[in-house]
Amino acid sequence: MLKDATMPIFSPDRHAHVPSYVKLTKQPIAGGIYRPLANDEDSNACAPSALSGHHSSKLYTQKSAIHATSDNTSIFISGAGTLPCLLEMVSSGSVSKDVIDNNNQITPSKLQPQQPTEQPLNEAVSVCKRAAHTTAKTLSTAGHTAVKATKVTGHAIHVAVTAVKTAWHTFTNFKAVQLIIKFFRKAYGPWKKRMRFSYAFYAIVFTLLTSAEVIFLQWGVYSEPEYAEDSEVDYTTQILQSVAGQTTRFVSQMWLEQKYQFLLNFIGIGLIYLALVFVLNRFWIATVIFGAAMTAYGVANSIKMGLRNEPILPSDLSFVSNGNGGSLLSFIPKDQQALVNGAITVLIWFSCACLLLFVLDGRRRFIHCSWKHPSSNAKNIIGTSSRALAAILSIVLLVSYTWNLNIPGAWSYTLATNLGYKPVPWNTYEDAKSNGPATTFQSLVRVKAMDKPSEYSKKTMEKIAARYTKEANKINTSRANILTDSTVILILSESFSDPLRVPGISFDIDPMPNIRALKDVTTSGLMLSPGYGGGTANIEYQSLTGMNLANFNDQLISPYQQLVPSQKNVYTFNQIWNDACQAQCSYAFHPYLKNFYLRDSNYKKFGFKYFRTIDSKPALKYQDHIDAGYVSDASAYQNVIDQLNQSDGESQFIQLVTMQNHLPYGDYYTNNEFKEADTSTGLDENEEVQIDTYAKGISYTDQATATFLDQLNMIEQPITVIFYGDHLPGIYASAAKYKENQLTLHESDYFIWSNSSSSSAGSKLSPEESDYSSSNFFMASAAEHMDAKVTPFLALLTEVHQSVPAAGRFASTDADWGTGSTSYLDSSGQLIKKKNLSSEAKQLLEDYRLIQYDQTAGKGYLSENWFNRVP
Length: 871
Prior knowledge:
Layout: H1 2-6, E1 33-36, H2 48-54, E2 74-77, H3 82-92, H4 97-101, H5 119-172, H6 175-192, H7 199-219, H8 235-241, H9 243-256, H10 261-280, H11 283-308, H12 317-321, H13 325-329, H14 337-360, H15 378-403, H16 411-418, H17 428-435, H18 437-443, H19 458-476, E3 487-493, H20 513-521, E4 523-528, H21 536-545, H22 559-562, H23 574-581, E5 586-589, H24 599-606, E6 610-612, H25 633-645, E7 653-657, H26 674-677, H27 685-713, E8 719-725, H28 733-736, E9 747-754, H29 767-770, E10 772-773, H30 778-785, H31 792-803, E11 806-808, E12 823-825, E13 831-832, H32 839-856, H33 861-864
Parallel strand pairs: 3-7, 3-8, 4-10, 5-6, 5-7
Antiparallel strand pairs: 1-2, 4-9, 8-9, 11-12, 12-13
Helix pairs in contact: 7-10, 7-11, 8-9, 10-11, 10-15, 10-18, 11-14, 17-18, 19-31, 25-27, 30-31, 31-32
């Protein structure tokens, strides 16, 4: 029954009578055709109802069904819409593909009367079929081509592999090769079963290597003592005070004095070693990396201690991270080259030994683990979990130990103090000698710029702002000039100082006659420098910001690297000129690498329009050298002259940091008359060569500076120059041995001078106001020298400078002279005990500290009160 219901039925009775038709009015048909539908449902535009609405064509339709199914149902489709409707009908299932394909088999005789032709549809369908056929043929051709190319490539690979196999078989068939293969096959069994080194052996290697590195690091801190020829020092004392004796004492004091700094350093770098072992899970690879890194650190630390009396600090790592590692190598003095070469030789042999042990050791992984099949069995589950947990815990322990080492009350700080740790962060040289360089380094990893003063609040800062705004108004009533009406050039002359002021140094020739004469007729004096042999960026930071390092926490060693990068807004004096011209009217020059001390990024925060160096784009135009030295001061000055000539008379602020007299001081000047003129006594050959070279460099600076000032005198616009040496070079080993020379080795030369177009030309402040100063007071002194109005902040600096002429964070010979990290000088250059300062001076210093906290670590309340603007 189901079959009969679904099969077409053709009954003779249905055609026995003459069909009845209804006559409809004829309408013109243009290109129309009939097509059977799959069902009688209307579908969008192709439904009969829709089509009848679009076409006025009429047709004769049979009243009674000719067929039992709907296959013979007819519909008229206009020629214009034939193809789209057919495609839609095919997609909807209303028309089968066979109907379309057999379209050309339908003859006009099979249609109803007046049925239109099917030629347009046939042509459309034919075009589609030809296009499909062409596409299929194209794809087929492309496929055949790809297959053919694949076969050719495969054949070529097969031929090559066959050739290699043939060559390999030919090679291995040689009798000598067969003997070698047989030997290794026999040896493979025992080799595979070779002994695994025990964990006890690893522990012994760990202990010995870590101890050796601690001793090597400590050895690099000390230097051999020198004795006067007429002094009588017994042999035992000489041994104890030698480098070997001091290093031995550092270790033996665990038993003799119950001081465990050696153990503290062992723990500090041992945690690094342990983390490497657990993270890499390869003991010998971790051993090579640890040994090489710690040895390199020890060598670098020893060199820096000799040059700058300062160990390697965390902030120094920015040099390497900024791609300046190669440049640092140029600072290695010749007398230290043997140490470097020896260390390289030791590391090569050490690495070879570790490689041999790695090959002999049957234990490849320190902790068994399987990352590919971590859960295949209990052994893999336990091993893999233990390996991951050990790596994580070792890193956490190392970070926690280092992070809390300088935080009183923290677990690692408590542990360290129980082992004898007594931090001396204001004097990293002494800290490294007593506590060990590794502990010093780790204690300075985490640094907090300043502790929040208990009285710090918005209300307190508003009172301070009002107080010094009033003071600024008072000062400004007696001053006639505007600071920004003049161009100010701030020159940091690298390592510039008078060598004749150092005890024991003398020459028959004056190395700086021009600057010495200039200091007699203009504002000038000595600057108290917190650095000796280094620390350029710290003194530079003070001169640009007016902040003093003495106000920061002792752990903050280098603001350029530890503070400024984390600050959103940094106030510097050049911004006064930027505000005046409503743009960036300040420029910076440095004839060396832009990333040293992160100057490139820091200067952008400071608001300099551009910073030109030897590697900037564009680079400094003038980069001439004198013999084998750095870029000369004469060339550095010429870049400034060009900038002034391009200014069209506009006032600007120019920052210049020179490089000519930077260490090392090898014998590189071809005509150095100071070799013959040196009348110093008690110097060894190396010290004498360095001092003679340095003196010649100072002579070149003296001549170049005199020429530069003459050029400024020819420019018809007011210009004021602030010139200062940042620190003394670390070449006075003989003088540095005596504590009474410490203050002298922290005093460099400075002067403030105005050209002939300035109203302040020929000005000279009184000796009480200028004989001694700090770089943070330079802008306030320049304003006074120029008789220029000041901002509230400059008014504060002016008041502080009058009460405390100089202040610097360096270790004094007696801790009672300051806080242990800060030394104060009076107008005659004598150290002042802090407790003896006047109540007014103490109040000024307290206000200064609050202001510095607000602008560096606080909420910046003073910025809202225009504290750095001229009232």
